[in-house]
Design a protein that fits this description.
A: 53% strand; B: 112 residues; mainly beta; six-stranded mixed beta sheet; 11 strands; globular
């Protein structure tokens, strides 16, 4: 059974640009959550999607958005990039109906210059 | 007060010893608790989940939960150098959905 797949693995962007990250969950999983990991703040929850609806949201500015498609694949978008957005972005997949264990993808390392 | 707190370490133990990792949480309604292991440069890997008071054992790992004290711990028996990693405690916020709140992580070093 394939795990959680995130693309791309690495990205370098310039301040002011926007970026889209993709996450394909484990087959059959309907919940996808996104997290930002930085050395200073640790792992912070961005948002969660279940059946194409945002079910939970963290405390990030509106520049961070996401969506989920009917096949459960999810995308995260960050607009008007800032230097502070440089981080490892992680996607986690879970069964979702009643909460089950969450499994992480390899992550996307975003560097904003 | 942070919602989930862990000692940042580093925690250093000799090979073969028991490593004890601790975590406290502030939200009394939390029902689901998880331990993840993260090697440097890698993503977190789920190693234990626990939902009821008491102990849960899986191989060399034992998770312990005390909801009255709002305390979760992870014991690693017969520690190996390959166990050297950062261990993250995660608590499910509320009772629905996938919002995990993570502690800062405890760095464990197992010395041969």
């Amino acid at each position: 059974k394939a795990g959680v797949t995130q693309t791309p693995r690495y990205l370098i962007k310039t301040r002011g640009q926007q970026v889209t990250l993709s996450c394909s969950p484990i087959s059959g999983h309907r919940s996808v959550s996104w997290y930002q990991q930085t050395p200073g703040q640790g792992l912070q929850f961005l948002f969660e999607y279940f059946s194409e609806t945002q079910r939970n949201k963290g405390n990030f500015p509106g520049r961070f958005s996401g969506r989920q498609f009917s096949n459960s694949r999810s995308e995260m978008n960050v607009s008007t990039l800032e230097l502070g957005d440089s981080a490892l972005y992680l996607c986690a997949s879970s069964g979702g109906q009643g909460y089950t264990e969450a499994f992480f993808g390899q992550g996307t390392r975003l560097t904003v210059v | 007060q942070k919602e989930v707190e862990q000692n940042s370490g580093p925690l250093s133990v000799p090979e073969g010893a028991i490593a004890s990792l601790n975590c406290t949480y502030s939200d009394r309604v939390s029902q689901s608790f998880f331990w993840y292991r993260q090697y440097s440069g890698k993503s977190p890997e789920l190693i234990m989940s626990i939902y009821s008071n008491g102990d849960k054992e899986d191989g060399r790992f034992t998770a312990q939960l005390n909801k009255a004290s709002q305390y979760v711990s992870l014991l690693i028996r017969d520690s190996q150098p390959s166990d050297s990693a950062t261990y993250l405690c995660a608590v499910l916020r509320g009772n629905q959905g996938g919002k995990l709140i993570f502690g800062q992580g405890t760095e464990l070093s197992v010395k041969p």
